[in-house]
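Discussion board: Methods & Data

I've been asked by a reviewer to show the raw model output for two of the constructs in my manuscript, not just the figures. I'm not sure how much to include, so I'm pasting the format here to get opinions. Each protein appears as its amino acid sequence followed by a line of discrete structure tokens. Is this the kind of thing reviewers expect to see in a supplement, or should I convert it first? Here is construct A:
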Amino acid sequence: KDMSNPSTYYGPKAKVVNSLVSDGCRIEGTVINSILARGVHVEKDAVVENCILLQRSTVQEGACLHYAIADKNVRVCPGRTLMGHGTYPLVIAKDEIV
């Protein structure tokens, strides 16, 4: 499905390792071993590791997300740490603000 999104933006201090990142994302933090759908925003100093983030989700400044699956339009507030486990990931419902 073509959404004609702009290219993904990688900030000057962004770090992306072994991840699949869709068009329209804005990466300013760290993303490791993760899948990011269209329009995901990882703000400065945020860490996303071993996660799946669906469309238009935002991980705000200083937040950490490990072993999580976030549905569409999820917002993780600044400074939050959310962690699941490799065999039991944390699941965040659609449109949630955590």
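Construct B, same format:
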Amino acid sequence: SYILRRTVCGLTTKGYNRTFLKLLKALGSETEDIPGELRSGLAALSGDSSVWPTDAAFSDAWLSRKAYDLKTQRVAHILRSLSNAHMTKLSEKIQIESPLTVEHLLPQSWTANWPLPNGEQGMSELAAIGADEDDERATASLQRYSLLHTFGNLTILTQELNSSVSNAKWTTKKPALLQASLLPINQQLHKYDTWDEEAIIARGKSLLEKALELWPRP
């Protein structure tokens, strides 16, 4: 939880060796509750090099930071853990033998098949950045780009499924995902008739609730 939260928040890993050695020395040989003492010690740390991010800081990073900028394996691990967390004793056990890749639900190349909420075609990120401040199409495009790489817009698929639906419209992509993938994280897409900024934010918050349970802070 400590390392994952710091990773999501984009905090440095440079001080980990020094931090953990210091904590281990502080525990002492007579400590009965080593896990509890270690959690307390980590929670007391401060500063960007060692702080354990609070729920507020973690939530803000989860909903707004570009998660796709993290190492792909880490993002895939996080999404897979979230998917597994939705399994209950009533669920069938799913054994995954093929590697899973991270996929954008709203694709990175979205301007051709994914119009803006008002129906207009979106602008490239570079063009939107250079547009006038009062250009509504540019503002809407930048809003979409700001959500594109967040956890709310990411999922895990087999490479074959990923390639087959990559830039397709939602009316094509959604049924393909639901038919081919049994993962809970994908089956929950049933409830989204459209996939837009509102849906990305809503799904991001839903995944965040589970993330806070999986990786709590004392």
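Answer (T.O., handling editor elsewhere):
This is acceptable in a supplement if you add a one-line summary per construct. For B, something like: The mean pLDDT is 90.
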